[in-house]
Amino acid sequence: MPIEYEKRDGVAYITLNNPAKANILDKQTSDAISAAWVDLWEDRAIRCAIVTGSGERHFCGGHNLAPRPDLSAEDREYLRTQRIYWPLAGTVHGQKTGVDGRMGDHYPRVWKPVIAAINGWAAGAGLYMLLTSTDIRIASAENARFKFSLLTQGWLGNGPGASMLVKQLRYIDAMKILLTDEAFDAAEALRVGLVNEVVPHSQLMARAEQLARQIVTLPPAAVRMMKEFVVRFGNLPDDQAWHVQNLMNSLLIQTTMDGEEGRTAFNEKRAPKFSGTLRKRGEAWPEPSEEEARRLDEAYRSGEF
Predict the structure, then answer these.
(1) Per residue in 216-254, pLDDT tens?
(2) How far apart are CA 86 and CA 189, in angstroms?
(3) Pairing of strands 91-92, 95-96
(4) Which of 6, 201, 233, 241 falls between 20 and 30 A from 141, CA-CA?
(5) pTM of the entire structure?
């Protein structure tokens, strides 16, 4: 199997499973990951995902660079040129569309939290996957290593990694990674902000699962909307982003039961039980009397509601 895919108690586990070939993204693996992203997105019982690699050497060593044996160098050059001008329908720059129509099949942004447990080398497309598809990144102190693997291959790459790196790191740190193409370890990844934490390898999955279990306790609709807000609208001017956030928050409170459950639990001094249950549309509000309208207006202007 190119990946191991499991679901346990609200968490989906994606494990790249080809350690003999550095857990590379060959076509079979890419297709399997794409199917897993779709499945965990559509399964409402899943509230979080953990992605990792099999073994202790590689998280993901990148794309499979070996060409099909029946294609000549001239054939490949022709097809790459054709892809620039005539990408297939249902693809993003030639990569078929998966759960996220903007980023192709194995670089998606799923509107559920994704935690990376980086057990070894994340190079090339393995690093791009971290940048595009994961939100929280835990690295093995002993084994995690990182390399962009573009300029040393003689190209800029077809993936979205360079633009994502510059957005997520300081300019000078991103440019050092891009322009030197040097490998770096977990400590350097932590320093530049590529990962959240570095832990002993023996504690890697336990720490990832601890974070996942915390996320599972939170309101699922609010969690996914928080991620979508940050990714889709976080770069807007502050006043516009705030306006979108306010609209999304009002929609959440009005159409799910979790906002009410959170407030009730707080007032009752108990742990909330968030379910993501949708709220049924009710009757229209009756028109208030003049006296009631004045009372409500005073409360509205006070802000104490």
Answers:
(1) 999 999 999 999 999 999 899 999 999 999 999 999 988
(2) 38
(3) antiparallel
(4) 6
(5) 0.88
Q: How far is it, in rounded angstroms, from Cα 76 to Cα 74?
A: 5
Query: pLDDT tier at 280 (50, 70, 90 boundaries)?
Result: confident
Domains of the chain are: 3-216 (3.90.226.10), 220-278 (1.10.12.10)
Instruction: Tell me which amino acid residue 114 is.
Output: V
Written as six digits, the tokens of 217 are: 């306790």
DSSP letter at 297 equals H
Rounded Cα gap, residues 103 and 110, in angstroms:
10
pLDDT above 80 (res 92): no
| CA-closest candidate to residue 137, choices 121, 152, 116 | 116
Are the beta carbons of 130 and 169 closer than 8 angstroms? no
Amino acid (one-letter) located at 229: F
Specify the 3-state DSSP secondary structure of 216: helix
Residue 48 tokens read as 């979080």
The b-or-e profile of 111-121 (16+ CB within 10 A means b, else e) is bbbbbbbbbbb
Tokens of 159: 């993936």
- Max CA-CA distance within the chain? 84
Calpha distance 224→229 (Å, rounded) = 9
Question: Under 8 Å CB-to-CB from 172, ≥6 apart: which residues?
Answer: none
> Which range in 89-103, 174-188, 255-269 is most confidently predicted, on average pLDDT?
174-188
Residue at 298: amino acid letter: E
**Token couple for 213:** 């279990």
* Amino acid of residue 181: D
